[in-house]
Write a structure and sequence with these properties.
mainly alpha, Methane Monooxygenase Hydroxylase, Chain G, domain 1, 7 helices, elongated
Length: about 220
């Protein structure tokens, strides 16, 4: 097999694994979006199962990231733009870590705190924006797998617009958390949660930027 064909096959395999990684993260962030409702319902059994699913997803994503690293290391310097694929894999691994951390902190928030001034509604809206952003990343990787660079670039720009919405929502919610939360412990937890979601969105933006560079190379 000549080196060019080997590079193409390796890139396809890496993109397929990366898509699997993103699919799992998308499921995890969707789980995260329903967690506030479970806390208000005081459904401890479902909360425990959800946290376990999210933690398992983080482990699965880490394993997939190692798989991509092995695949690319096998071909070595023959693959162009391997750095973009590796950076995307490692950054999505970080996103999975953010989801786990946010879920853990959120599970320790009291239902009464979330109910106050309907903070739960705003928090869910912020998380759902992150869901939309990761959904765009999922669509981008499918477009790249089909060598459709134009669609991939357009979707990346849409992901960037969603990230700006996350920033705006984050700023507004941060002020509300400070105004509405009187307990120090709850205030610190909520502050960490909303900051974590915003930082996670920034990480997803880094992936979309890497995908733009990858799309331009196709």
């Amino acid at each position: 097999m000549y080196s060019g064909e080997r590079e193409v096959q390796s890139k396809r395999k890496a993109l397929a694994v990366l898509q699997d990684e993103i699919n799992r993260i998308l499921n995890a962030v969707r789980d995260l979006s329903i967690l506030p409702g479970l806390i208000i319902k005081a459904d401890k059994s479902e909360i425990k199962q959800l946290l376990e699913r999210i933690k398992n997803t983080e482990n699965e994503v880490e394993a997939l990231r190692r798989k991509i690293t092995r695949e690319i290391s096998d071909i070595g310097g023959l693959m162009m733009h391997r750095e973009n694929i590796l950076n995307s894999a490692y950054t999505m691994d970080e996103v999975a870590g953010y989801i786990t951390g946010i879920a853990f902190k959120l599970s320790n928030i009291k239902a009464a705190t979330l109910k106050k001034e309907k903070l739960d509604k705003d928090l869910v809206e912020l998380i759902e924006l992150a869901v939309d952003q990761i959904q765009k990343i999922n669509e981008i990787i499918r477009a790249l797998a089909n060598n459709n660079s134009t669609v991939a670039i357009d979707l990346a720009h849409e992901a960037q617009k969603i990230e700006r919405q996350v920033d705006n929502k984050y700023r507004a919610l941060s002020i509300r958390v400070l105004d509405e939360t009187s307990t120090t412990k709850e205030l610190l937890l909520l502050k960490d949660i909303v900051e974590g979601i915003e930082e996670m969105s920034d990480k997803v933006l880094q992936v979309s930027d890497s995908f733009i560079l990858l799309a331009l190379s196709l």
